[in-house]
Design goal:
364 residues; alpha+beta; Ribosomal Protein S8, Chain: A, domain 1; 7-stranded mixed β-sheet; 10 helices
Length: 364
């Protein structure tokens, strides 16, 4: 069980480290290939990490590449797993990921879910014996681009104390739902904690206080000191705890995998042993319900109504996925910003592989 939140290095003050989309994808792919991952899987994982960083979800993007490489090196993740269907009821499947990188397992589940949903209208694919699969929206957005509604959840190592509790029991236990594409995309990807763990580490590295309600200290009391943070707080108190438990039910109990409090953190696993994470990916074909065109029209009306709602201030009302799409548009031009630790690790990888790595933009 997690008993403390690890420490983060301080910023260098030498300006912002940046890497372009193409350079990031080439570097990530090459590093994964060098770790023994087959090309197709290496390219898929690299694409998932780069796309996540482009969308501004930095905690689940390129920052994870060095940790994934460590898990491949230590035998926690298998570079060439044999992913097998162990239970098949047509619209419901259970996959054994054989210790695969979580992104590889998650994408396999999404492919099965898409194929079965086209056949049955609805498909649910559970995954066992997997590892950290990054941002849940990687899988739901892939299903959405195929004309389906996607839902994905995953178990995760404990970071969050239950409402009124002291010790972490639940992971940040994300849930993602997506439909549509482009400007007409709905893409919810949220943790069930008040804030993601990466925000705590970021505030710690910057020497900044935490916002109220983000974390508690070892006695279960709210704290604004990032160095005293012992556990994250659930989103919305007991309601967030309920959501976290629902995700645990779907991602862990339903797939027959260990609960969050028995899982190791990313980068803290036991050499030679997979982290045994469970996922659930659900795909729904709108053609089986309202119909493709009525669904598309209804989704458009939903998004348009929300976006055109009168704002209370200067900023417009946004739909889930709008901020991420804006980040993606900007970062494709300016590059992906990196924290100092990730920039240093990617630079080391780039030097070893003879490839371009991050560069720095001088401080303003």
């Amino acid at each position: 069980m997690t008993t403390s939140l690890d420490r983060e290095t301080k910023p260098s003050g030498d300006g912002i480290a940046l890497i372009g989309e193409d350079a990031a994808w080439t570097l990530a792919t090459a590093a994964l290939l060098a770790a023994g991952v087959p090309r197709g899987d290496a390219e898929d994982v690299a694409r998932a990490l780069v796309d996540t960083s482009l969308r501004g979800i930095d905690t689940h993007g390129l920052r994870l590449l060095p940790q994934y490489l460590d898990e491949l090196r230590d035998g926690i993740a298998d570079p060439k797993p044999t992913i097998q269907v162990v239970r098949d009821r047509g619209a419901g499947l259970l996959l054994d990921a054989d210790g695969a990188l979580g992104v590889v397992a998650g994408l396999a589940a999404a492919r099965y879910a898409a194929e079965r949903a086209e056949r049955y209208g609805v498909a649910a694919v559970g995954v066992r014996e997997s590892n950290h699969f990054g941002a849940a929206s990687v899988y739901t957005r892939r299903l959405a681009r195929a004309g389906l509604v996607g839902l994905a959840v995953t178990s995760a190592a404990s970071r969050v104390a239950p409402f009124g509790g002291v010790e972490p029991l639940f992971g940040t236990n994300p849930i993602s739902v997506a439909a549509g594409s482009g400007e007409g995309e709905f893409a919810l990807d949220m943790a069930t904690s008040q804030v993601c763990y990466g925000e705590i580490k970021q505030r710690r590295s910057e020497g900044r206080e935490l916002d109220g309600g983000w974390a508690t200290d070892p006695q279960g009391r709210p704290t604004g000191d990032p160095d005293a943070a012992h556990a994250l707080s659930p989103l919305g108190g007991y309601k967030g705890q309920g959501l976290a438990m629902a995700v645990t039910l779907l991602g862990s109990v339903l797939t027959g995998t260990p609960p969050d409090w028995q899982l190791s953190q990313v980068g803290e696993g036991t050499a030679g042993r997979g982290r045994r994470i469970g996922h659930l990916v659900l795909a729904i074909d709108p053609g089986c319900f309202a119909g493709e065109q009525p669904f598309a029209a209804g989704l458009d009306e939903l998004l348009t109504t929300v976006r055109q709602a009168p704002p209370s201030g200067d900023a417009p009302v946004l739909a889930p996925g709008d901020p991420q799409r804006a980040n993606e548009q900007a970062r494709r031009t300016t590059g992906i910003p990196l924290d100092d630790r990730t920039a240093a690790l990617l630079s080391e990888l780039a030097d070893g592989l003879g490839l371009p790595g991050p560069s720095r933009r001088p401080p303003a």
